């Protein structure tokens, strides 16, 4: 029974890493989709906003989180796994924060054109 208690945190960490991997990969797609939509709106209005550049940076941050979590899933070293999971977690949370900042910026930038 003691063995189960020792493996449970490892399984939980592995589970978190899997969620970071899938969510960050999906968010790269979301960023690319929004960049395309934003570029279409910008070209119709003959203006330019910084939002598409911010979204490209955001996509790169999600990609970095995705790659770190993938590396953590593939590594066999428990110490390296935990370090990579922490890095992936921090990158994902930073990218998520940048997503909220981007949403606010794009909202204000687009509403300023009206």
TrEMBL record:
Keywords: Membrane, Transmembrane, Transmembrane helix. The chain crosses the membrane at residues 20-42, 54-72, 92-113. The keyword Membrane applies. The keyword Membrane applies. It comes from the Bacteria. This is Uncharacterized protein. It comes from Dyella mobilis.
């Amino acid at each position: 029974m003691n063995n189960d208690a020792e493996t449970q945190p490892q399984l939980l960490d592995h589970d978190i890493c899997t969620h970071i991997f899938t969510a960050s990969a999906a968010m790269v797609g979301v960023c690319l989709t929004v960049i395309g939509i934003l570029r279409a709106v910008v070209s119709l209005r003959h203006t330019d906003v910084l939002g598409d550049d911010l979204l490209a940076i955001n996509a790169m941050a999600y990609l970095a989180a995705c790659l770190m979590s993938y590396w953590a899933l593939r590594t066999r070293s428990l110490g390296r796994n935990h370090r990579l999971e922490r890095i992936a977690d921090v990158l994902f949370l930073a990218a998520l924060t940048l997503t909220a900042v981007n949403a606010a910026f794009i909202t204000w930038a687009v509403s300023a054109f009206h």
